[in-house]
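User: Quick sanity check before I run a bigger batch. Here is a single chain. Can you write out its predicted 3D structure?
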Amino acid sequence: MESDIGILLLSLEIGIVATLLSAPPAILIAWGLARRKLPVPSFLRAVLSLPMVMPPVAVGLGLLWLFGATSPLAPLLEGLGIELVFTPAAATVAAGVVGFPLFARSAEQAFAEVDPTFEEIARTLGASRIATFFRISLPLARRGLLYGALLCFTRALGEFGATAVVAGIIPGRTETLSLGIWSRIQEGDDAGAAALVALSFGLALTSMIVAERWLGPDRR
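Assistant: Done. Predicted structure follows.
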């Protein structure tokens, strides 16, 4: 039971950190796409969606090629003393990469629903672009942004393929809920797998209930 709690806490930590790291680029890119400030938007949307439509194992292999010992970034990472592959940090990166498209696309839709007239009025009243973004655009799009963050978080919690490739299934180190369920099934530990499934179910249900209370149609 103690190990199951450790797996749950690690999964929560990875999901939260992955969502927080995804938030700034997802929000900025989404705003740029919604306001047509970025070039070749169709191509950018297609690239952003790739981790969502590609096989997760392929995404993990790509991350392994990018951050592994033989990658072009290996000398830089080694010089900085950063060890990424087969660590919780690698699991966080994998979770963030696969959850990022959901955050970005939801955020883009949220900004697209904000009337640009409000931003134009703020600009005519002397507000800078940065002030307009933080005082007008961001607050008006907050529901969609929160929903995107929730999608990213829940996707990160359930990530399996990319995490297994780039972080491995190391008990007590990189074993998340989904990886723990798989390893227990492979070991024939049905009771252990069922316990982790129950934890996953409870966590997912709690997330959905919180989302409904924050973002439901009755919320003012």
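The chain has one domain: 2-215.

User: Great, the batch can go ahead then.
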